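note to self — DONT lose this again. spent like an hour looking for the file last time. sequence + predicted structure for the chain T wanted, 202 res
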Amino acid sequence: MPTRCMWIAAILIALPLIAMASSQGKTAGKAATKGQNPVVVLDTTMGTIKVEVFNDKAPITAKNFIDYVTSGFYNGTIFHRVIPSFVVQGGGYPPDMSRKPTKPPIKNESSNGLKNVRGSLSMARYTDPDSATSQFFINLKDNTNLDPTPGQAGYAVFAKVIEGMDVVDKIAQVKTATKNVQGTPFGDVPVEAIILKSAKVQ
């Protein structure tokens, strides 16, 4: 039986991501000063989630996320994959599940010492460790099998929920189904769209 780590890799491979170069996204001046981690407010149709972004421990990944936030990329996207007792994933698709052009993929920072514990945010990616773009997931429990092991990269943690984990848990309880998009099946998609109305640096 495949492990959950293998499962998430297979899931993400099934989701077509685009690594098209783009000029969208410039880090806002208010994002953070040196030595200070920014807080991002995710306003969803099910409530508000606040996350601390670890500029200090995941600088590449944090900057990538903040760039997407400040460019407005995440506004109007959905949480397109919900797997109870595992993860809630979003950051890549509008409600019609069409593809959104992304910035180039980033270097994997899973060896930064941060763990895939409940409430942490990590980057979704293909099996290639350095293939993450815009998609992220929130861990619903301690998913230690997503952490790096000797000789194998994990999923890079770059933030944590500091307010609104109850909202994340509500999202985890919604009804899901398989949705076919132009002949491609997407599993674990919420039947009623959960929209990330806006993402802003506090």
